[in-house]
Design goal:
Order of helices and strands: EHEHEEEE
Radius of gyration: 11 Å
Distance between the termini: 30 Å
Number of helices: 2
CATH topology: Glutaredoxin
Structural class: alpha+beta
Helix content: 25-40%
Shape: globular
Strand content: 25-35%
CATH architecture: 3-Layer(aba) Sandwich
Strand order of the largest sheet: 2-1-4-5
Largest sheet: 4 strands, mixed
Length: 73
């Protein structure tokens, strides 16, 4: 099974939709919740080029920032 890393925040509808789509497509999804783990903010800002937005998807060596719309954190 292919693996994906998903950065999310509590209450983010875009995060929930992306998680559901990935699961349907057969991806094994690991999540990092920036609402619960604020220490990852620095890492997340590096991935987004300084944008405070989720979801951020990392899979197959590629980073996708808010691929279907996003929410600020």
């Amino acid at each position: 099974m292919a693996r994906a890393l998903l950065y999310i925040r509590d209450g983010c509808e875009y995060c929930a939709r992306l998680r559901a789509r990935l699961t349907t497509e057969g991806w094994e999804v690991s999540e990092i919740n920036v609402s619960r783990e604020p220490r990852v903010t620095t890492e997340l800002l590096k991935l987004t080029g300084g944008r405070r937005i989720v979801p951020v998807l990392v899979r197959g060596g590629q980073v996708e920032v808010a691929p279907d719309g996003g929410s600020k954190f």
